[in-house]
Amino acid sequence: MSFDSFDDQYIIPGLEMQAGIEPSAPTTTYFDAPDIDLNSYDNIIVCMSGGKDSIACLLHIIEMGADKSKIELWHHEVDGREGSSLMDWKFMTSYNKAIAAAFNLPLYFSWLEGGFEGEMLKKDAYSRPHLIETPDGLIVSAVKPRPSGRGYKALWC
Fold first, then answer.
1. 83 and 120 Cβ atoms separated by less than 8 Å
2. Which entry of 9, 19, 46, 62 is 20 to 30 Å from 132 by CA?
3. Which strands form 137-140's sheet, in the order they lie side by side?
4. What does pTM read for this prediction?
C-alpha cells in the first residue's frame, strides 16, 4: 500500500468520523493527481521553510525527474534580518543554505524589514519594505499600505 492510499483509506475517514461527518465512500481518492510534466516549466520554485514538508516536496520533484537547473529554493525569513528571534529558529538560514548546497541548488531569501515582530509592534506607521533576492538581484518593495493608527490590537480584533 502506498503512503497516499493509506491516507485515503484510514486517515481521512478517521478524521471525518472524529468530526461527526459521515465517512466518504471507500472509493474516494484524495491524492490521485495526474503526473505533471515538469519539463514544460521554465523555473520550478520550492518555498523552503526547511521543514519536512518542503524537503519532501523538493525530494519528490527531484524524484519525478525535474531538471535540477530549473529548480530554485526560496526561503522567507519571518524575523527579518534586524536581530529579532521571535519566530525563526536561529539555525534556519544556515540550515536552508546547507540543504541548497547539498543539492547544488540556488537559494534566495525574502524578508520584511523589521520582520514579523516589527510589523506587530508598529503604531501609526506604514509597513516597512519587503526585500526579495532574485537571480537578477535584490528587489525592495515600494508599496506603502495605510498606517495602522491603532497599534497591535487593531491587527487582530
1. no
2. 62
3. 44-47, 71-77, 107-112, 130-134, 137-140
4. 0.68
The answer to whether residue 157 sits within a structural domain is: no
Do 39 and 2 share a structural domain? no
Is the CB of residue 50 less than 8 Å from the CB of residue 87? no
Residue 74 maps to a domain: yes
Within-domain flag for 152: no
Give 126-151 pLDDT, tens digit per residue: 888 889 999 899 999 875 655 555 54
How many CB atoms within 10 Å of residue 40? 6
Rounded CA-CA distance 143/109 in Å is 19
Let me know how many helices (H) and strands (E) the chain has, helices first: 6, 5
- Which residue, 13, 55, 4, is CA-closest to 31? 4
Q: Is the Cβ–Cβ distance between 63 and 36 less than 8 Å?
A: no
